[in-house]
């Protein structure tokens, strides 16, 4: 899918993010108002608001009432709580995808083994590459496996922008909990070529397991991520009463 085929809000978000990534908008820069962006792109303010909300969810901008929207001082950093799915108003990691494959097959044939899923049960396997803001390079390699019973039409979705947690919730699947493992990993031949790095380069490998509210595994996601792609953090509020 080309950029012209993306939803309007995604196209606007991509263009605004590119200005932040390439330094045209430095940290602290006040970006144009919703009204100015609506006029510039010839779209409704609702469309612009969605694009700005996605950027805010990704930590790229900070929005202030009556003051406007500013490029975040930590642009390029990502909250790990988004990766676990605890924050679900936008993509787990900001950016579009290049879809490598999307297929239905038996669980025993999948590249990842879904816990507590029989080998003869149908599953959906999606392999994608996460792209940089300008679409010029791959910043992560993703492989997701889901039971077909919870994702029967996933392969028909616009996988360039779709995230699995949002998809599952939109289908009415009640998500119960998610666990994210982060471990060091030495690049193999395939991924070394993909990222343009030497074989054996240390990178991150994430493995996310998601359960439904009923306790069933509904997704297994593996992400291979070069250490220089982004900075990751966990931030939580300390405003509550001490326990």
Automatic annotation (TrEMBL):
GO molecular function, one term: DNA-binding transcription factor activity
Keywords: DNA-binding, Transcription, Transcription regulation
HTH gntR-type domain sequence ranges: 6-74
Transcription is among the record's keywords: yes
Record carries keyword Transcription regulation: yes
Pfam families: GntR (PF00392), UTRA (PF07702)
Alphabetical list of PANTHER family matching this protein: MANNOSYL-D-GLYCERATE TRANSPORT/METABOLISM SYSTEM REPRESSOR MNGR-RELATED
Name of the molecule in the record: Histidine utilization repressor
Organism: Saccharopolyspora thermophila
Gene assigned in the entry: hutC
